[in-house]
Structures are given as structure tokens and as C-alpha cells.
Design brief:
83 residues; mainly alpha; two-stranded parallel ribbon; elongated
């Protein structure tokens, strides 16, 4: 493998990694103000990793693939899409 070929592969990998979509974690709670507390409980119970805190969003703000209406969000959460 040539040096040029190797650097090209590394550049492609870095581009793919930094441009990959950020997968959000919807948090089901009563209101947006409760999200930080809910995330704390999830981390404490090892339901999510500490590094995933910044990916957590209020469930109504979740930009998941099936989201479009409130009913779609509820259906996605109930079906286990987020697990």
C-alpha cells in the first residue's frame, strides 16, 4: 500500500466519521425541563453510557426516522425502536 493510498483511505474514514448522522436518544418525561434529571437517572441505572448524555433529547424534539406526528413518536417508543 502506498503512502498516498493510505492517506487517502484515512481521509475518507475521517470524513465518514465526522459527517455521520448523530443518533439522538429520545427521553420520555413530562416536560423539557425534566430531561437532565431523567438522563441522570438513566446514567445511574446504566441504561445509557455517560458519553451519551449529549445525544439525549426531549421525546417531542426527537428527529427519528419515523417521527412526523405525536402518534408516530409514541408508536416508535412503544415498539422498541429506541432500544
Amino acid at each position: 500500500m502506498t503512502k498516498l493510498n493510505l492517506s487517502h483511505r484515512i481521509q475518507k474514514l475521517e470524513t465518514a466519521t465526522t459527517s455521520a448522522p448523530r443518533l439522538e436518544i429520545p427521553v420520555w418525561c413530562e416536560d423539557r425541563e425534566s430531561v437532565p434529571e431523567a438522563v441522570e437517572r438513566m446514567v445511574a441505572r446504566s441504561q445509557i453510557a455517560d458519553a451519551d448524555r449529549d445525544r439525549c433529547v426531549y421525546w417531542a424534539d426527537w428527529k427519528g426516522a419515523t417521527v412526523g406526528t405525536h402518534e408516530a413518536v409514541v408508536l416508535a417508543l412503544d415498539s422498541g425502536v429506541t432500544k
